[in-house]
């Protein structure tokens, strides 16, 4: 196996890359979309939710200000506004999650149509292949990545949590101020964790890209065989050119003979 890898010194051809893409063998980080979504949500959602909650508070204030026997049309209009606000509160975060996830996936691989990847392969059930995956470079990278992420998140999160606990013990802090303080600190914590995840996922993408390219490398014989399959056997092509040259020479001689 080692000798086979060492013999694969040639860059993959366009045909090899196309075939690999059709089989779903493309470089991508499985976690990048999730981390980018969390990062976008931690930045965009808090102010948006604040706006929606203020809007709902205004609606409920209007509801409490209605007379004892309110006009049905007024109640209906107010109920409609409340439903719109609740719908926005739910729909916009879900829409953001969908758009960012799709964008992150397309940024990595583009549009991939790989029906062959859905076909079951018995080779995936091989215990030898499973053993190789456990002790492969990819497995070591995944373990190192998870460990580094855990250590980094802990190193960043612990100071934030400690400082937050001290901030809540400030004398004279009202319930509303305490709640707003907690929301700000939780938002900051999510942003830091998400940024860490995004950076590691980008590094993971480049690692996967390099690993995939190495897996797709070809031997010199494979490159020659592919060229032969595409262009034809060089011996046959040479013989064909020789025959064409002889036919052309014979026609030239015949033309000269006819002219004399």
What does this structure look like?
The model has no long low-confidence stretch (mean pLDDT about 75). This protein is about 80% helix and about 0% strand. It is elongated, with a radius of gyration of 33 Å. By secondary structure, it is mostly helical. It has helices at about 1-5, 15-20, 30-65, 70-110, 125-135, 135-165, 175-215, 220-230, 235-260.
Reconstruct the topology from this structure.
Elements: H1 2-7, H2 14-22, H3 32-64, H4 72-109, H5 127-134, H6 137-167, H7 175-215, H8 220-231, H9 234-259
Gyration radius, in Å: 33 Å
Strand content: under 5%
- What portion of residues is helical? over 70%
Based on DSSP secondary structure assignment, what is the total number of beta strands?
0
The number of helical segments is 9
Major sheet description: none
User: What's the end-to-end separation, in Å?
Assistant: 70 Å
Overall mean confidence score, pLDDT: 77
Are there runs of 5+ residues with pLDDT below 50, and where? none
The secondary-structure element order is: HHHHHHHHH
**What structural class do the secondary elements suggest?**
mainly alpha
From the spread of the alpha carbons, the general shape counts as elongated
Give short descriptive properties of this protein.
single chain; 260 residues; mainly alpha; 9 helices; 0% strand
């Amino acid at each position: 196996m080692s000798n086979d890898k060492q013999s694969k010194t040639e860059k993959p051809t366009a045909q090899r890359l196309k075939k690999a893409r059709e089989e779903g063998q493309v470089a991508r980080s499985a976690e990048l979309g999730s981390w980018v979504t969390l990062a976008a949500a931690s930045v965009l959602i808090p102010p948006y939710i604040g706006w929606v909650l203020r809007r709902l508070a205004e609606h409920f204030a209007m509801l409490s200000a209605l007379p004892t026997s309110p006009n049905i049309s007024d109640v209906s209009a107010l109920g409609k506004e409340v439903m719109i606000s609740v719908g926005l509160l739910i729909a916009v975060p879900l829409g953001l999650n969908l758009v960012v996830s799709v964008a992150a996936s397309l940024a990595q691989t583009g549009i991939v149509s790989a029906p062959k990847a859905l076909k079951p392969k018995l080779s995936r059930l091989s215990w030898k292949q499973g053993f190789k995956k456990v002790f492969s470079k990819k497995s070591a990278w995944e373990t190192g990545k998870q460990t580094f992420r855990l250590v980094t998140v802990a190193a960043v999160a612990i100071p934030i949590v400690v400082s937050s606990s001290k901030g809540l013990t400030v004398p004279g802090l009202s319930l509303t101020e305490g709640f707003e303080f907690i929301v700000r600190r939780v938002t900051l914590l999510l942003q830091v964790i998400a940024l860490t995840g995004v950076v590691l996922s980008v590094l993971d993408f480049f690692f996967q890209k390099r690993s995939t390219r190495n897996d797709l490398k070809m031997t010199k014989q494979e490159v020659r065989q592919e060229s032969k399959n595409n262009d034809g056997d060089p011996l046959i092509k040479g013989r064909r050119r020789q025959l064409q040259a002889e036919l052309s020479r014979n026609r030239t001689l015949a033309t000269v003979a006819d002219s004399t």
